[in-house]
Amino acid sequence: MRGNVDLVINATFWIGAAFGAGGTLLLLNSGLVSPTFGWRFAFGIGAALGLIILVLRKSVPESPRWLMLRGREQEAESIVGGIENDVSRQKGELKEPQGGLKIAVRDHTPLRDVWNATLPAAIEFSLEPAAPGIYHPPMRVPGSQPLDPKIYVMP
Fold first, then answer.
1. Where would a tag sit more exposed on the chain, N or C end, judged by fewer CB atoms within 10 A?
2. Longest C-alpha distance within the chain, in Å?
3. Rounded CA gap, 146 and 148, in Å?
4. pLDDT in tens, 73-115
5. Alpha carbons within 13 A on the beta-carbon side of 136
6. How far is 138 from 146, CA to CA, in rounded Å?
7. How far apart are CA 92 and CA 85, in angstroms?
8. Is the entire prediction scored with pTM above 0.90?
9. CB atoms < 10 A from the CB of 53, how many?
C-alpha cells in the first residue's frame, strides 16, 4: 500500500504544481486580493498542499522492511501474515520460504549508506550524455528488428 501511495503522490506532483501556479495567478493578477497579501496566500497554497501530503503520509502504514529495521518485528510479522493469508485464500497454499535473511536493527540510515547508494547512479547519469545508449541501452519492442549499436556510440 505504501508504494502505491508514494506513486500517487509522485505522479500528482505536476497537478499540484499546476494548481499552485493557477492559484498564484488568480491571487496576484485578478484583483481579488491585494498584492500585498496575495503573495502570502500564494505561499500558503504550497504549505496547504504540503500539509495534505503529511496527513496522508501519517495514515499510510509502514512497510514490513522498515519495521524490521527498527526492531518492530511483531508489527512486521502481522502485516506479512495478513498479506500471506490474502494470497493463500486467492491462490492456494503457499510454499515455505527457502533460505534466510539477515537484518541489522538500526534507528536511522547512516549517511554512508545513502552516499554508496547515490554515487554510482550519479556517475552513471552524468556519463549518459557523453555516451548515449552505452549505460542505458534503448528498449526494443519484442518482434521488432534489432537496433544497430553503431548509431548509439559517438564517433
1. C
2. 67
3. 7
4. 899 899 889 888 988 998 888 888 888 777 777 777 788 888 8
5. 10
6. 11
7. 10
8. no
9. 14
